[in-house]
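Worked example

This section walks through a single chain of length 97. The input is the sequence exactly as stored; nothing has been trimmed or padded.
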Amino acid sequence: MANEEIEITRLAEPVMLFNENRVDVNYHVFVRDVRSGQVNTLKETHAMRYFFKPEIEMLSKQSQFQLIHAEEWRLTGKLVDESTWRACFCVQAIEIQ
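Given that input, the structure is written out below as tokens.
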């Protein structure tokens, strides 16, 4: 992204930590001053916990909910599969008799 003063480039490198159900996304951000050409670099890591569909189903059931739909976060209608990085889950309360 850029304007008349700065250009920003952001690189994201995910590191999967399968045994922790976590992904650490290492960000490297380069901010270039358009006038001087000077570049400042920022680095940070976002540790993010993720859930698989069976976990969502199990947690929903334990909480008196049921999973009624799951799709890509961008709401494309594409169902969740092994290539999905972001998902939207819809759950509904179970009526207790």
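What to look for: The chain has a mean pLDDT of 92.
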